Amino acid sequence: MKHKELIGKMTLEEKASLMSGKDYWQTQNIDQYGINSMFLADGPHGIRKQAVASDKLGLNEGIPATCFPTAATVANSWNEELGEKIGEYLGEEAVAQKVNVLLGPGVNMKRNPLCGRNFEYFSEDPYLAGKMAAGYIRGVQSHGISACVKHFAVNNQEDRRMSIDTIVDERTLREIYLTAFEIAVKEGKTKTIMSSYNKLNGTYTNENMHLMQHILRGEWDYKGVMVTDWGGSNDRVDGLLAGNDLEMPTTAGETDREIIEAIRSGKLQEAVLDESVDRLLELIFTTQEAYNKKPVEFDVEKHHRVAQKAAEESIVLLKNEGNILPLRFGKKVAVIGDFAKDARYQGAGSSIVNPTILDHTLNCFEQSGIVSIGYESGFERYGKNNAEKIKNACALAEKADVVLLYIGLDEVTEAEGLDRQNMKIPDNQIDLLNALYNVNSNIVAILSCGSAVEMPWIDKVKGLVHGYLGGQAGARSILRILSGDVNPSGKLAETFPLKYEDTPSYHNFSGKEVSVEYRESIYIGYRYYNTANIDVQFPFGFGLSYTTFEYSDIEVTEAGVAFKLTNSGKVAGMEISQLYVGCQSEEIFRPTRELKGFVKTFINAGETKTVTIPFDDKTFRYFNIKTNKWEIERAQYDIMIGASSVDIRLTDTIFVEGTGAPLPYHKVKLPTYYSGKVNNVSLEEFESLVGNKVPIATWDRTKPLGYNDTIAQCQYAKGAIARLAFHTIVFAHWYLRKIGKRETANLIMMSIYHMPFRGIARTTGGIVNMPMLDGILMIVNGKFFKGLNHLLKERNKLRKSYKIASRIDSASGKKL
Predict the structure, then answer these.
(1) Which one from 125, 229, 278, 709 is the annotated catalytic residue?
(2) Mean pLDDT of all residues in 770-788
(3) Which of 26, 118, 535, 746 gives the lowest tally of CB atoms within 10 Å of its CB?
């Protein structure tokens, strides 16, 4: 241990006190040992340090900070160096705001398009997500502070995220859901990791010994700090045993006492606590050094320009019929759509940033050189029909050469804590598009959202530019693409299916009650669509340019692949070349191809460059469940260089000797997995893959409700008051949506409806403790008077303990 001498001076109580927060965002300080509080702040794409009383829900505005494009956006750049640059600027702002740990990036997989937090994640591919995350981490940590990769692991839905049990086979866990974290640890060298809320195969992730100890700290040799998601601690002692060091936020000393009692009873060895204290002290001391070196202010304008550059390189041109783009000089354009006036530029929830500057489309036309003849909103932002707005928009469109139509998803449709209901753009926006098409067919749609959407309307537009969520400079960046000042170079980091029913997890998303089953196994995203031969709207890795690129002269060696790339068009541009590998053997089921490398290359018109993509330790590996380790199959491998996952330009083969491991599967038991057509796998076959029976996915409505049951389950509680509370919550949610207060309605679902009862104690900062919660549960389970008496008695005990503590602190001169 690095801090053994200091830890030896500390009492058991002092050490335990460091294991949970001082308040909502800060760790505990012990002044006599020179241990300062450490500040943790949300910040996947911008610092969210709240200016007034702290809360987690985003009710209070943050201190102004640069709002960079979200991870889902920047992933489309396929540029690790850009990710690292964004990380550097995020780190600089974090230091300016005295933030020790920046809570991001998020590297969870986009298993399903409806996950409400997809805007905050990079990709459906773990290799791309891991490489981009490693860049962010290196950039953030170059300033001496810590990034915090989240959410570890298999947290791929928002509904019931605090209690859902994720059922996934070991190979899929390793290959799909842990690889990005592995890259973040080994290549990014992240100093902090945040555990997720959910269970993994029956055990909460922050207590899961296999995940936390065997894999993370054992196989990956991770030495850094593990922190719970806010309110995500279940059993504090089990979490500590698994290596989850810091619990956030504060529980006002309640869980500190649990740790002390566990050590005194022999359930927990003090050495385990000492190791966690040592890791936390190392993080506190090393990040604190950053404040002795750095300036207290950052260059707002410079950071804004970096945000603009990031957005420009991440925008994806999806359709360009008749080369309608770039807009030719002198063309008169009508600007239509509410998102043109008020840009949709970021997600919602814990990542909301208060931007330092905010570009809006209507304010940027003069500099763009595009001639706008006027603006009409065309539709109500939150979905209401308005015939008058459509009429006015059509009148304007008739006068224009080209219509720029700004459509997308609103801020409360994509949000933390809730999953989307469907993949559709709101009907009132499509009604507008149809009406505009009847008066002017030269429509360029600009799409603003953080995830995939269905596009049955795509034949009605000649141009389609996907800006994703471009941050505070996104609006100006889109205009620079439209005008041709910037040649688009982004490519999709996720697949856009034709319809939601085509997705591999359609029948198993999201888990509504006890569990969610990952029956599709390794076949997520393009791995499924390519293997099962499912047509898609836009494939993974797809994106157009204003120039063209030709690939030639592939050469494969044991070290990697090289080829020539020529810009055969008339303007300079950047091309993202993608390496896919497929195994020709059929002994182990695998996707037809998997991304194993990529490079982004700038090439002038007419120029040819030699591009090299090296092989690495992940190029040929698969996880073998019999040997319980990574193996390489002895086989011939297809080496494919593509402009997307379906647009393969060059192919070659290489024979790889392999590691000689035994075959992990019996084909006859897993016919669907060997076919790749996993959209609707039977329970029996899934259990054969997993290797055991899976839990019953529905609630047991006969049992009393407990700590890990949710408020939503009050619908069948024995206590009449609990059932009344449930119906009141449901009504409040319905009513708030009805009157247009959708953000508040979402807050009810996220922070109340799906909250497990233990969350009441874990997130209230000591206002409600676990003994008081016992009383609440008695009331819920039909023992009203007994429960009320217990609740009031425990509340009085808590108040007395606070008064005693206050007097002791006052007498000793400590500041509370």
Answers:
(1) 229
(2) 96
(3) 535
815: burial class by Cβ within 10 Å (0-12, 13-18, 19+)?
exposed
Tell me what pLDDT residue 811 has: 60
In a 13 Å sphere around the CA of 299, the CA atoms on its Cβ side amount to 7
Q: Two tokens at 464?
A: 């389609």
Paired strand residues for 404:
335, 444
- Torsion sign (Cα): 194, 199, 200, 205: positive
The contacts of residue 14 (CB under 8 Å, 6+ apart) are 30, 33
* Other beta carbons less than 10 A from residue 471's beta carbon: 33
Instruction: Report the C-alpha gap between 652 and 636 in whole angstroms.
Output: 10
Q: Is the pLDDT of residue 806 over 70?
A: no
Q: Provide mean pLDDT across the span 660-679.
A: 97
As a whole number of angstroms, the distance between CA 69 and CA 60 comes to 21
- In DSSP notation, 199-235 reads EETTEEGGG-HIIIIIIIIIIS---SEEEPPTT--SS
Question: What span, in angstroms and rounded, lies between the C-alpha atoms of 318 and 465?
Answer: 6
Specify the higher pLDDT residue, 587 or 417: 587
The average confidence (pLDDT) of the chain is: 95
Compute the radius of gyration of the chain from its Cα atoms: 27
Q: Give counts: helices (H), strands (E), the chain.
A: 25, 26
DSSP sequence for 586-611: -SS---S-EEEEEEEEEE-TT-EEEE
* Structure-block tokens of residue 617: 């330790």
Amino acid letter, residue 378 = G
Question: At a CB cut-off of 8 Å and minimum separation 6, what does 411 contact?
Answer: 344, 347, 348, 743
575 closest CA partner among 508, 672, 471, 649: 649
Residues 64 and 358: beta-carbon distance below 8 Å: no
State how far the Cα of 814 lies from the Cα of 29, in Å rounded to an integer.
12
Q: Please report, in angstroms and rounded to a whole number, the separation of the first and last CA atoms in the chain.
A: 31
**Cα angle vertex 433, ends 429, 435, to 5°?**
115
| Residues whose CB is less than 8 angstroms from the CB of residue 176 and which lie 6 or more positions away in sequence, other chains included | 109, 126, 522, 524
Give, as one character, the DSSP assignment of residue 766. T
By CB atoms closer than 10 A (0-12, 13-18, 19+), residue 289 is exposed
**CB-based burial label for 696 (10 Å; 0-12, 13-18, 19+):** exposed
229 tagged catalytic: yes
Alpha helix (H) residue ranges in 289-344: 300-314, 338-341
Strands (E) located in 245-366: 316-320, 332-336
- How is residue 605 written in tokens? 């018109």
Burial of residue 291 (number of CB atoms within 10 Å: 0-12, 13-18, 19+)? middle
Q: How many residues does the chain have?
A: 816
Decide: 53 and 43 in contact? Cβ < 8 Å: no
User: Tokens in use for 770?
Assistant: 């676990």
**pLDDT, average across residues 167-172:** 98
Q: Which residue has the tokens 């050590």?
A: 263
For the segment 175-179, the average pLDDT, to the nearest whole number, is 98
Residue 649 φ then ψ, to 5°: -95, -35
> Do 472 and 355 touch, CB atoms closer than 8 A?
yes
What tokens does 272 get? Answer: 């385990």
Distance of alpha carbon 783 from alpha carbon 791, whole angstroms: 12
pLDDT at site 59: 55
Q: Report phi then psi at 335, rounded to 5.
A: -100, 120
Residues 6+ apart with CB under 8 A from 533: none
657-666 core/surface letters (b: 16 or more CB in 10 A; e: else): eeeebeebbe
pLDDT of 370 above 70: yes
Bond preceding residue 151 cis, omega within 30 of 0: yes
The band of 349, judged by pLDDT with boundaries at 50, 70 and 90, is: confident
Query: pLDDT value at position 58?
Result: 46
Q: Which residues contact 458 (CB under 8 A, 6 or more apart)?
A: 319, 464, 537
Packing angle of the helix pair 427-439, 387-397 (nearest 10 deg): 30
Whether this model's pTM surpasses 0.90:
yes
